[in-house]
Amino acid sequence: MGTPALQQLLATKGRPADRAAVVGETLALDHRHLLRHAERWAMALHAHGLPRGARVAVLAEGHPEVVALMLGLHRAGLVCVPINPRYREAELRHVIDDSGAALLLCDRTLADERLDVLPASCARRLLPEDPDAPPEPDEPDGPDGAPLPRLPSSSAAPPPNAGLADDETALLVYTSGTTGRSKGVRLSLGAVVGNIGALTTQWRWSSADVLSLSLPLFHVHGLCIGIYGALLHGMTVLLHRRFEPSTVVTDVERGATVFMGVPTMYDRLLEHVERHPEAAAVLARARLYTAGSAALRPAMLERWEALTGHRILERYGMTETLITLSNPYEGERRPGSVGRPVPGCEARVVDEAGRDVARGELGELWVRGPFLMQGYWKRPRDTEAAFTDGWFRTGDVVVSDPDGYLRIVGRRSTDIIKSGGFKIAAPEIEEVLLQHPAVREVAVVGVPDHRWGERIAAAVVPVPELPAPPEPEVLVAWVAEHLADYKKPRQLVMVDELPRNALGKVQKPRLVQVLRRPDDPDAAAG
Ligand code: MLC
Ligand code: AMP
Asked: Which homologous superfamily is 318-324+336-413 in?
């Protein structure tokens, strides 16, 4: 048996302990301090009386103490539930209720009225951005009145319980599906470390690398590849709360060798370089640029290469499967393709009956391997329905090149939208719009878009009795009031009726065509 995953993450062997591990905007932790902070979190959480396997929600932006906290959770045998800070009340409440989180640790800047809707069973604590700093006088107690867990000094005894075993659930990452509310995906440390280790070794990550990371830490892209991948190789992470193109340039200037982003980030970076041509020479100094979470248009890849001399390495993944396909580090990085299976993963392209199709024919991508999710949290039926004979059915429509390189060409469900790398369920937005008194019928779709990959577009049939139809802006604001900002429609039109088939079902592919604008790109998986 190999080294347990947690030990691989916490290992300091071969790494200069005083080399920066995570550098944030206000705090930098070297490897020694990161581990010390993690250990103190483990002790504090243990002292808080949380039983093994308890869920702890984390509502935070990307800063070094969050990384220490997450490692502390693994060390304390607890399950980390990272939450998107853009969520509004109902989305937040759903994740807390569904996960049964006993504790929410929240950045001071994010602790607002949204937390008022949380159940009393979930204690709330502020997450200090530097736990060595003296506490703020106004730090609130949780609803149960219990005092805040003070971090014990580094000399205190380590927590008595063992850290997470490879096959225990370490992360519960919420992701949207075609039906119902978002589901918690159970990921073990064994899967994360096994998969990300294989991927990043293929990408030649090493302790000499410095990663510029502006991806959020509540999704597998930023958290698993970014943070855990960098930890596995003893790298330095320059960690940012938000993405800003100029920050990437500055990071490379100060020594970053790797940048990882969603295509929308590359779109913004390209715009930046067009405005500041001198940035291209700086960006050229890095070693590796990777993209994923949505389709990278070949034109973007080509433009990036022309400007910086680097060909972006595109790979493919899913919260449920981690990263299963990647272009090679050496060898051809093919535009419009996501490459071949990552070591340890298997892939098939199948027809509706689950039979393999010939290369060159469209089919659904099925993946298998030891790195898949353990299942959806408390949803055995959904878990069972997601697999066929151990193969996870991704729902993505792909085609294989003659040499086995795969291309993502679409998605089976028109109810899933990928905007700027975020997955969004169209029915969730439809439900909110239907609650508006002026809306009689609505259909929401993703339309191919240069900036967002897909933009959320809505066709609304207004209530006929109204003296005038509602203003589109009013309905967009209504969605923004109820859901995370990125879920609001970027295009909203009033229609007399929705296109339906003979059975009365809304024909979403037809609607996408109706809502397309002349300069929109061709369809591609968002
Ligand atoms: C922000 N906005 C978005 C948006 N993000 N609109 C649509 N889609 C998005 N993804 C809107 C805001 O609502 C706001 O609208 C405006 O953009 C500016 O907001 P901002 O907060 O300043 O945006 P910014 O920080 O620039 O965010 C853009 C982004 C972000 C691309 C950096 O979306 C992002 O971090 N995306 C990454 C998502 C990710 O990590 N996915 C990985 C999933 S895991 P307005 O109208 O108010 O101006 C996965 C598996 C795998 O997919 O394979 O990796
Ligand atoms: P998520 O559930 O947020 O993890 O999103 C997973 C989905 O993102 C996949 O099912 C794909 O539809 C999409 N995706 C991820 N990587 C790529 C890629 N390189 N190209 C196209 N789509 C991608």
From this structure: Luciferase; Domain 3 (2.30.38.10)
